[in-house]
């Protein structure tokens, strides 16, 4: 596997920026003598533009005020208020989050682009877009969700939407600032977080540290995470700014990757017979460097370089749940019978260590101009991105295989796959301002090469021509949007854009004949046409609302294959629906410091179905898409008192969902017993929050409860039946200085 020369890249980038900075400083000294135009210091923001009224599509911002009001327990609760989003809660603390947008399969959020400060967060954005990490909410200042044609500037995933976690900026007022918080809850949940930073007009430094641990949804599913982040900013001049961020994250959890069989689930839906031995370990290191150059009042050049390395290893003892009359057996030790905690100690299993490394560099030019005498904002950019992925699998029945080191030294080396990705992205967009109208044409080009090399499969070395393949794709993705702002504090918008998702390499390789029988199967990329028509308004004081009608047509949607760990093209599908979101603050309406408020969102996904029969994918035309509930709703009622007290109670509702298409073929009795087929019933969960921050105090006391009614519900059938989280309550204290 060819490794990217990351050190050389980072060093070269730093030297280039340093040299450029030195040149510009000298140039600035000369310019001072000439009394050229003065510009304000650069302000670092998220991915949304300054003029939000010109965004030609649906977006939603969860700001710091809303995060504090709701006190979300995980990313799931933070996004439940966003219309169009379905979060499948098969995990307790937002680890391995599953987010689906407008009917797209939420499995590991592979069809929604996740970013932190504009940097992709997946294990590998092109080769394995799985979200085993999301930015901890403690570091987040706001969450930006973009679903319309405004996402054409970002990629590679542009079919469903993008979510950007904007972290807190480095202080610049010459003072020391920080936060210290502690939380404690049931299920042995504890959390400690600290942040400290200082800076002035020349720049500054900020450091974050986080430690969380607790018990998961099922028995023996304890977890522990830690993260350390350093963020620095150096203002070389009023025109030049350098921002660097480095982070280290580690997760150690005992989370079984398989669910329960039908009989097991009804006996005890929270059991995990192999949970003490099942392991998921994830270590992630990242570095991000940004150079912002405000050339003048009209032109800004920003260059971003990023690097990420993730090592994840999982151990499991059950591969297929419910295979013995609705109960699970361990696939390495079938002679032991039904899986129990006792016989799990006598069995081996399978380790799946995987390494991911990617880096990229992206210069972008933002330009205000008056081409053809029309006020305009233009964005032109390019990104070069590389990935290297190494996937291995080791198996064995010896209980010593429970040690990864032993498994790699003495186990059966069943699988070894190397994937290399090279991607080039080009984009340009221009917004024309004509009276109350804006017109925004845009274009994105994705040019990528994915090379797959199956070196070992089913325990045998592979060197046949079919075990190596290169998938080259070049896609031109146009978009166009318009807005009208002829009514005060109101925007009407419409847009259409071509969506794209890279081809999905199989997670697991089947070589039934042993040597020289493994074949690389390259899926075609997903392509879609996304239409939107909507309105957002704050016309009335204290009232905000938005609504969007959307229609998405997939030419060739990708679905899970009939063999676990594989992907195939499932043919045409359509997604149509309408979204609503709004909030009423009666305190603002009646000009009183006592504020009662109502906020909510609702999505009706009235169409989410396949339009083409595909026997190879077990799809029938008219079948509903998996994990695409027709109704999603969130309603919250709250009160804010001038002494610093606020309280909220709410309910989140998810209607019935269908299982993955791979298991629908006649809903066979075997799959019913395995728990992978059948509907996922609707459920509604009550949640509540109380915050108290005395006037003039730097202390905040808070408590939150989710699933307050302790509702038992089925969350997922992916790899077996998985129960949703029971009641979770936590309380904490936070000190800001």
From TrEMBL:
<keyword id="KW-0798">TonB box</keyword>
<dbReference type="Pfam" id="PF07715">
    <property type="entry name" value="Plug"/>
</dbReference>
<dbReference type="Pfam" id="PF00593">
    <property type="entry name" value="TonB_dep_Rec_b-barrel"/>
</dbReference>
<keyword id="KW-1134">Transmembrane beta strand</keyword>
<keyword id="KW-0813">Transport</keyword>
<feature type="domain" description="TonB-dependent receptor-like beta-barrel">
    <location>
        <begin position="266"/>
        <end position="708"/>
    </location>
</feature>
<keyword id="KW-0472">Membrane</keyword>
<dbReference type="InterPro" id="IPR036942">
    <property type="entry name" value="Beta-barrel_TonB_sf"/>
</dbReference>
<keyword id="KW-0998">Cell outer membrane</keyword>
<feature type="domain" description="TonB-dependent receptor plug">
    <location>
        <begin position="52"/>
        <end position="161"/>
    </location>
</feature>
<comment type="similarity">
    <text>Belongs to the TonB-dependent receptor family.</text>
</comment>
<keyword id="KW-0675">Receptor</keyword>
<keyword id="KW-0812">Transmembrane</keyword>
<protein>
    <submittedName>
        <fullName>TonB-dependent receptor</fullName>
    </submittedName>
</protein>
<dbReference type="InterPro" id="IPR000531">
    <property type="entry name" value="Beta-barrel_TonB"/>
</dbReference>
<dbReference type="InterPro" id="IPR037066">
    <property type="entry name" value="Plug_dom_sf"/>
</dbReference>
<dbReference type="InterPro" id="IPR039426">
    <property type="entry name" value="TonB-dep_rcpt-like"/>
</dbReference>
<keyword id="KW-0732">Signal</keyword>
<feature type="signal peptide">
    <location>
        <begin position="1"/>
        <end position="21"/>
    </location>
</feature>
<dbReference type="InterPro" id="IPR012910">
    <property type="entry name" value="Plug_dom"/>
</dbReference>
